[in-house]
Amino acid sequence: MSDTRQPSFLVIRRDNIGDLVCTTPLIAALRTRHPQAWIGALVNRYAEPVLAGNPDIDAVFSYQKAKHRLAGETVFGVYAQRLHMLLGLRRRRIDYVILASPGYQSSAERLARWVRPRHVIGFDNGSGLADMVVPVHTEHMLHQVENTFRLLRTLGIDGTPPPLKLVAGKALADTWRQRLPPGDGPVVGVHISAREADRRWPDQNFIDLIRILIDRYSARIVLSWAPGSRDNPRFPGDDESAREIGATCASARLIALPTAGLDELIAGLSVCDQVICSDGGPVHLAAALGKSVVSLFGSERPELWHPWAVPYRLLQPESRHVSDITVDEILAAWKALAKPE
Question: What pLDDT band is residue 65 in, cutting at 50, 70 and 90?
Fold first, then answer.
């Protein structure tokens, strides 16, 4: 690496929200080693708010998948925007593209080819694109953060990955903080949504849990969920469940957090003391905000995806179905985290 010119890096991570959050330790370590370097990130548009305000990144580039285009957007327009972005990145003559996903992704490799960097860093998946490779790890299971972090060994960076990093928008966070119910009880974020069926907890269980948290512990509840109707074929949400839970609990100590955008969810979680949710993006958002987490796991492997570098309690029943976790088990896990040291 040249001593006279600062290198430039582009991190490509086109996966889901949690995957991108788990890449922030890699970006932080890269910035620590190269404080004057140009560091950019190329991500899916819906995950872009994960990197908003991140001090380790100079620029974030995002693209929309054609199947996820918004009303008024055309397929041609989506691809034209992507081409314009990639040609702009190519003109930067980037030194290193980092393919920051442990699995093979042909689409990410196509993006890297368009950028035409001097070097491509990636896992040795047999494609031949990366000229600076890290072997695929097969000895034992590594957390997603640790596995992705291994890519930095090609640049002489090793050690324990730092915590996740996420910056909540101040204006949005202040808005939700002002809406919190009065009192000095703990602020507990309860996120009810989960994409996979094995991670979904019944609405009645959430109702019972919230009532106990309010009645016994004077908790203030921030209820959040994936927006939209459950019948939406493209983006199914939990508006119906949230309405039912909120109406049944009917407490002044509960506020609903309708999140039209990911930035609103991040801001809402930032005002909580603890977060209770199923395995998925919100687990990692909460951990990146430094919150303690009660995480409900279905069939996913906890050693790969547990909350990183924060206090947590993880519940996974033998059946590998979150619906088999009891209210009492979650309550005990929450009490263990909420108890003062």
Answer: low
